[in-house]
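ok so heres the complex, four chains, lmk if somethin looks off
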Amino acid sequence: MSHFNYLDGSKLKNPVLVAGFPGIANIGKLAVEYLIHRLEATKFAELYSEYFPEWTIQEGDTLKTLKMDFFRARPPALKHDLLLVTSDAQAATPLGQYVLTGETLDFAKKHGTETVITMAAYVLSQNEPVNKRVMGAASHSELNELLEKHGVSLINGGMIVGMNGLLPALAASRGMRGFCLLGTTKGGLLDVEASEAILRVLQAILGFEVDLQELHQHALYFPKLKPILKSSREFEDELSYIR
Amino acid sequence: MSHFNYLDGSKLKNPVLVAGFPGIANIGKLAVEYLIHRLEATKFAELYSEYFPEWTIQEGDTLKTLKMDFFRARPPALKHDLLLVTSDAQAATPLGQYVLTGETLDFAKKHGTETVITMAAYVLSQNEPVNKRVMGAASHSELNELLEKHGVSLINGGMIVGMNGLLPALAASRGMRGFCLLGTTKGGLLDVEASEAILRVLQAILGFEVDLQELHQHALYFPKLKPILKSSREFEDELSYIR
Amino acid sequence: MSHFNYLDGSKLKNPVLVAGFPGIANIGKLAVEYLIHRLEATKFAELYSEYFPEWTIQEGDTLKTLKMDFFRARPPALKHDLLLVTSDAQAATPLGQYVLTGETLDFAKKHGTETVITMAAYVLSQNEPVNKRVMGAASHSELNELLEKHGVSLINGGMIVGMNGLLPALAASRGMRGFCLLGTTKGGLLDVEASEAILRVLQAILGFEVDLQELHQHALYFPKLKPILKSSREFEDELSYIR
Amino acid sequence: MSHFNYLDGSKLKNPVLVAGFPGIANIGKLAVEYLIHRLEATKFAELYSEYFPEWTIQEGDTLKTLKMDFFRARPPALKHDLLLVTSDAQAATPLGQYVLTGETLDFAKKHGTETVITMAAYVLSQNEPVNKRVMGAASHSELNELLEKHGVSLINGGMIVGMNGLLPALAASRGMRGFCLLGTTKGGLLDVEASEAILRVLQAILGFEVDLQELHQHALYFPKLKPILKSSREFEDELSYIR
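and the predicted structre for the whole thing:
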């Protein structure tokens, strides 16, 4: 029931998938959107799916259902492409998270992807000190070494909920590999420092560099949406009223 | 698992779909029901679906499961039909909202529909002043101009939950177009002024007119249903009792 | 994913389906179980389904998953059979309620059923006086007359949640007809008077009689089950702990 | 959407399935993990499924989605194998519990299993005295006798939620048989005494013995995981914020 909408017929060159979805402090989403902005990435494809929440939002000035967006970019220093991925929301159900992850991985593999990277949050408890740094976890042991070499602390136990963990974990079952970079945070709507920290690590690992000076300024325009309509189902539950 | 029940074999002429579902202040549902009443619309078809809540209600004096109702009408000033759509409830799950929207759009397209309009609520926060007016959003930029020309303020960000947004948004992916008219409201069971405001805009856009004098009186008979039986599932959860 | 387990190869004669499921005050379930007891009904079939809750209970001294039970009986005064139906629980989801209802109706129709009757509760608000009586609703207008002739007050608006309403309502779409008898109640675990009231009406309508003297005594043995194990999912949610 | 990953091509000899899943006081899971440890069991297969929660965890030092693990072992005293089963979590939905149970039973039957045993908790209310002992229930009456002969008190009414009950109950419908051993507990994260009690009964019934001295020490290393990332869906619900 999902479908991909291709916007660009160009062939990708060994693209590394780099994803950041809406979530706690929007660490991953801000990071990916900044890369899209700075690298002047081109929209490559959209994934529409009935597994998203039943919401409609404005994109530009028109109404759209929720989707996942795939952008391609080639930083000057690299000989391969980046496939930058973000979405308007995560799937509405646990099953939906599995389905969207599988569709994303199949799509990426078809276009030559071998490595899948997600960026997200590592939430600290209220009393834990924020030593700004990046935590990580990977699908293969050799990637752990790579992460540690770049100053990433490997997580030790714990679980990751949703596509940020499913993408690298299920990459392995498709013959790919993956890891996630988790910026430590106390939460909130945005944590720009955490986004900056994982971007620095990402660039060091992949071997490219974009100017991060504008990140704080870019964050000011991070879209902030308020819901217009509550679910009428909830509404009916409250009022015990149906027609 | 859904099925359409046709009640009328007549052919529709380029029908514009105008929908209003149960929801906050029942703004859209009251508006559509008033049009059905004033235009002496004819029931054209019913859509039954297992995606509705598992409720039964009385229609006339007999028990019916929940359904969507499609009426056809031709206001004297128009050379095309209206396909007036309402329902007893919205779907029970997010996936169900997508499914019912898709089935409604396929049905409408099959009968010649090119434009899909939904009417619903735009909820103001408690302290926001109620400047009675109509907000809107559309599937195509050129429709935004049309809306603004008729005094509709375009929403700027925010999201629409459920079929009121999905219908116009997914119309585009089927080669149709659509928009929604949202009456500002503080909520409650009914907001007759909001219904009236969107009806005035709808008529101006489509080029027909019905007498709105009776709308307040008609609202007095808006059906008010109380639940008889709570879900026995909830009941069992409370009592930890199963047989 | 559901399947019927036949326990008796005998042919039913125009059976009237009479169902009572677990629910508020177990009015319908007690009524059906008393009929099964007094009429010495024979177990005819069982319906197992993955749409039931994921619970296991003891039947006799062995573990069973939840199921629906179909018994056949022939009261001396009748020239047709009764198909007495009850279950251990209702379905776990709204969709499941539709599915189990459809499977039950298809099964009944296959065995010659033309009339489907459900017995359940009509919950009064705390301040409403309990005038012990029976409310009703039907799939066809002519059945309303029959109900009223036997002292049943027709409900006027309101909705019925779950299979008690879906069975008679969806009977019509399969060429059958049906009604429900709702005993007024304030709730609680059992309301024996309400069960008795609907049994009196049922017998008058169908034209048979069983001794209701033992009903109160029978109710003392109505099974009362306590849960042993809470869902481990809930448990994990509470403790944020997974392995 | 589930799939088995075989890690060992060896043929099992009439394996008795012994399962313990995460749950209250992790009584069953600890018991199975201790058997795996003491019997130096070999990983035989893994079951991955989209019906698990959408979580990722570390196994060793790499990211994995949730799964069910099947180990084979042959205690010296036995002439048949044990198929030791545990999982990282139970299924995310009631339907998922049925599906994973069915897949596990089909897998076990294919490998020659005739008997299915689950180990779990029997939760006492706060005021009930903890007479450390083992409760049980079975798919067939003759198994009840076996259980009682080994000091197991049969449960009398009540229900079992999830795979601990579904596995033995649905074994019967596949021509197998099964029972569950429930250690009485007040709850908590671990109840080592309860695990020990069911292991003593299990060994007596199956006719093998492992040293239980190390059980308490082994329990100290029972994995304790904290979630890193809350569901971003919940997060969005709280903040009414989507992109």
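quick notes: The CA atoms of residues 41 and 73 of chain D lie 5 Å apart. thats all i got rn
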